[in-house]
Amino acid sequence: MNSAGTHTVLRLTDRNSWNSLTEFRERRPCAGKGEVLIKVRSVALNHRDLAIATGTYAHRVRDRVIPGSDAAGDIVMVGKDVRGFAISDKVVIAYDQKTRTGPIKSWNWGLGGPIDGVMREYISVSEHAVAKIPKDSPLSYARWAGTASFGVIAWNALYGDVPIKSGQTVLFLGTGGLCLWGLMLAKAAGAITIITSFDPDQLRYVKNEFGPTHAIFCNEKRDWAVQAQRLTSGRGVDHVFDIGGAVTIEKSIEAVAFGGTISLFDCVGPKLEGNMPDVVQLALRKGVKMRAVLHGSKQHLDEVIAFIAAHELRMPIEKIFHFDRDQVVAAYKYLAGGQPIGKVCVVFGWSGSVSC
């Protein structure tokens, strides 16, 4: 049981390793005007968290930051003038604390970087920065936590500009978490889905567990762009989830249909060796639309939660850890040690009602 008025917080006291995560007892926040106080029940880790912990994140990070951006929990206190939320509501916390609709305006409001994040027992945020989970949802807090980033980003890619339509074809490069979230959303929307991998075991697992329409095993002798063209009878795919950046963009343009869309995300692949292809000319030849997807808004979060609930989707979890300094360090190490198919999550215990 926690001491009255305090809670446990993890902070990065240095940013050269996740081993610098340090546990503190700090004053528990209260819900101010227009705010809700949330008891965190689960946090989902991202590769962004690894970059922040090791000092390789490209954007500003506050000193001694509380890490973590993706969380789900329970509202335990409602501040003055809050409308639409009540104590005991289950919620997902928005990654970007300021963007209600449209594209994010800066990188200054992302949890766990420029502002303190969710790796703590309680967090107080604006009522405009949380989205309600349906009361009758059977999904765990851990499954909902990952919606804050992968769910929002994948939804933004598929619906944030020109919405994907039933019968269209979407190509996902790899079996990583973002592609799997996109695959599940696109499949539920009636799209034809194609996924690629250089790992035959992962490809077999994803094919059996998530049921893409087609699965392409890639190697030096099997060109995935050629295979995608073949699977679409030479027309090309309508949409590509390109997570490889400069290394894969030329092949993505080859695979996409005339007038198709390529969604670009933070590159997780190796750096390009040699000359960069003339992307502008390649895109112009096919009228390709390229769209950089920079996370998403509170509206996107509301929409993807409603879609997941309506279609009873079970978003994948790879491994669960508990909220304890050593366990959280172990969770970071696990995520850094490979390419997990599902989310790596931290779950929290419940400590009862609170008052301020």
TrEMBL record:
GO MF annotation terms: oxidoreductase activity
Domain Enoyl reductase (ER), chain residue ranges per copy: 11-346
Ranges in coiled-coil conformation: none
Q: Which Gene3D superfamilies match?
A: Medium-chain alcohol dehydrogenases, catalytic domain, NAD(P)-binding Rossmann-like Domain
Tell me what this protein is called.
Zinc-containing alcohol dehydrogenase
**Species for this entry:** Penicillium bovifimosum
